[in-house]
Amino acid sequence: MTVLEPPATRLARLGWALADSLTIAGRTYSRLRAQPGELAGFLVFPIIMTVLFGYVFGSAITLPGGGDYRSYLMPGIFMQVAALTAVAAATAVSEDMALGLIDRFRAQPIARSAVLVGRSVADLSIHLLSVAMMALCGVVIAGWRPHGSPLETLAGFGLLALFAYAMIWIGTYIGLFVKNGAQADAATFGWLFPLTFLANAFVPLEGLPSWLRPIADWNPMSAVVSAARRLFGNPGSAAASWPLQHPVTSTLCWSVLILAVFVPLAVRRYRTATSR
User: Fold this and answer.
1) Residues of the chain with pLDDT under 70
2) Domain limits of the chain?
3) Which regions span the lipid bilayer (predicted)?
């Protein structure tokens, strides 16, 4: 039996890992074609949130500084969907573990990093499709418009994508510990969904109790929302803390920090994890 050896040079190893990562990403897309309901759920959820907050609750919410609430709302929904990519990533990884796929991947002559990197890239591309659908929904249904320059608008979506990619790695790490998709959902959604509301995504922070306001101010999700609003030129609220006064810098710092912590942790866990 012939055993394939990794390429000798660093550049060749990088190309090998990239090719393997794309193969793993292709497997994820094939899985979605077999289960289109999963993709449909990803696309429908933002539409529901837009209609619910924009039309059901929006009439009862007044911005302290004035402005259209639906324009204020859209960056918050963009952030929430980006944050919840962690739930989908954790569920998918845990299901692969339960099916024994991780052990099979490790037995194959592929780059060790390819499985997690390929899946994370596939998850990010699916998220970008969801964001495109959500932006279209915001324009058509909610009347949302970005008022920044084209470059600022692209930068806003780029920051949201970076934050989503960081959250995917948190979900990947959690998914390598739990036994099945139900546990993965509970281990991520249970704390993550409430945390998206403990931010400036849907209502201004001025009305929060004094003991709760600092938590919301330093919530990374508040920085992401403020950065998106600033780059899109949408209405915002008063910034009383450093992260909200410098939201773009804060978002970059939080995203890079999350990646710096959870990518090595996930890779290390993947090397030792066994399928259940």
Assistant:
1) 1-40, 42, 57-60, 101-103, 105-113, 274-276
2) 36-108+125-272
3) 39-57, 77-103, 124-144, 156-178, 190-212, 248-267
